[in-house]
Amino acid sequence: MTFQVEFQAVVLAAGKGSRISEITTTKPKCLLPVGPMPLVWYPLYKLEQAGFTDVILVILEHQKSEIQSALEKTGIEIRIEYATIAENEELGTADSLRMLYDRLKSDVMVVSCDFVSDVDLHGLFNLFRMHDASIASLLLHPQQSEASVVPGPKSKHKMERDLIAIDQQTSRLVFLASASDFESELTLPRSLLKKHTNIKMYSNLIDSHIYLLKKWVIKYLKSEDSFSSIKGELIPHIVKKQLSKPPKTAEPRESIVSPKDSGDIFAYAKEDDLDLAIREASAYNDHIGDLKPAYHQDTIRCYAYVAPKDTFGARVNTLMNYWSVSGKIIDHWEKITDGKELVLKHPDATICSTQVDNKCVIWDGVNLKEKTSFKNCVIATNTEVNSFSRIFNSIVMNNVTIKEKVAIENCIICDGAIIENGCKLKGCIVGSYHTVEEDSEHTSEVLTESDRLMEF
Question: How far apart, in whole angstroms, are the C-alpha atoms of residue 302 and residue 317?
Answer without folding.
Answer: 25
